[in-house]
Amino acid sequence: MDLDIFPVRTRGRSARPVSGEVVRALKEADLALLGEERGSAAPPIKRIGERHHALARALASGMSPSEAGILTGYSGSRVSILLDDPTFQELLSFYREDVNAQYRDLHQRLSGLALDAADELATRLEEEPEAFSIGQIIEVTKLGADRTGHGPQSSQTNVNVNVDLAGRLAAARERVAARRLISENPDEV
Question: Could you state, in order of their start, the residue ranges of all structural domains in the chain?
Answer without folding.
Answer: 46-147
